Amino acid sequence: MKTTLDMINRMQADGVIGKYAIGGAIGVIFYLEAFYTEDLDIFVILPTVPGSSLLSLSPIYEYLTEQGCKVDGERIVISDWPVQFLPTQGALEQEALDEAVKTDYEGIATYVLSAEHLVAIALKTGRAKDHARIAMFLDQDAVNMEKLNSILFRHGLVPKWENFKSKFSEG
Amino acid sequence: MDLLREKQRRKRLASLPFPEKIKIVERLRRVSDSAKKSGLRKRNIVNSSQTE
Fold first, then answer.
1. Looking at CA atoms only, how far is residue B19 from chain A in angstroms?
2. Interface of A with B in 59-118 (CB under 8 A)
3. What are the C-alpha distances in Å from A91 to residues A33, A50, A96, A154, A160?
4. A32 contacts in B (CB within 8 Å)?
5. pLDDT of A159 higher than 80
6. Quick one: average pLDDT of A88-113?
7. Quick check: A110 and A104 in contact, CB under 8 A?
């Protein structure tokens, strides 16, 4: 993981990606107990090409394959870790990146989405595994409810939250 | 009581340093990979014995 994060930081320093932060299962594990996951999700801002509004992952793939990384479907394997780069789409993800938490992984600086943004994004995505992760956060009192409520309100996720809560309390 | 103990166990695991938690994930991934490979080998043996 250390080498993986170091490579992502180098890619950022070389201007291939902008701001980034760890999300998905590894983001959840930053706050909760470890569990099995296959890959590392990186939320990322891609530099825009002048005269174009299209966002492309090609520069990331080109950069990493030149470094010897192998493409595996939607993911690219960086030092044993399949990594999926998720370009930020929408205000919630943009805010999540802006408010990401800086941390240190064995001497490598990196960023992780806040617990509240991870919950909000999981709620927005809405798959069964996302709901299970939200339940884990709630069960372990690992979110600041005031901050979460404010995010949910700002991004129009209150109805989804009410729906989730009614299901969660039934279970 | 068991639920409370389980919650405390999870809290303790959650409080481990991030790199230690990632090492646990990496171990789980290695176990899963070798289980997949061994399952694949078993399936291949079954398939080859069926075609023989």
1. 6
2. 80, 103, 105-106
3. 29, 22, 8, 9, 17
4. 10, 14
5. yes
6. 95
7. yes
CB contact under 8 A, B25 and A35: yes
- Of A77, A166, A85, A155, nearest to A122 (Cα)? A155
0.90 cut: is pTM over it? no
ipTM: 0.86
Q: Is A73 left (phi over 0), alpha (psi -120 to 50) or beta?
A: left
Position B25 confidence tier, pLDDT thresholds 50, 70, 90: very high
Query: How close, in Å, is residue B46 to chain A by CA atoms?
Result: 28
Are A112 and A36 within 8 A, CB to CB? no
Quick one: pLDDT at residue A168?
Answer: 78
Name the band, by pLDDT with cuts 50, 70 and 90, for residue A167. Answer: confident
- Closest-CA distance, B49 to chain A, in angstroms, reads 32
Question: What is the layout of strands, in order, in the sheet containing A70-72?
Answer: A70-72, A75-78, A81-87, A40-44, A20-23, A108-112, A101-105
Using an 8 Å CB-CB cutoff, list chain B residues near A105: 18-19, 22
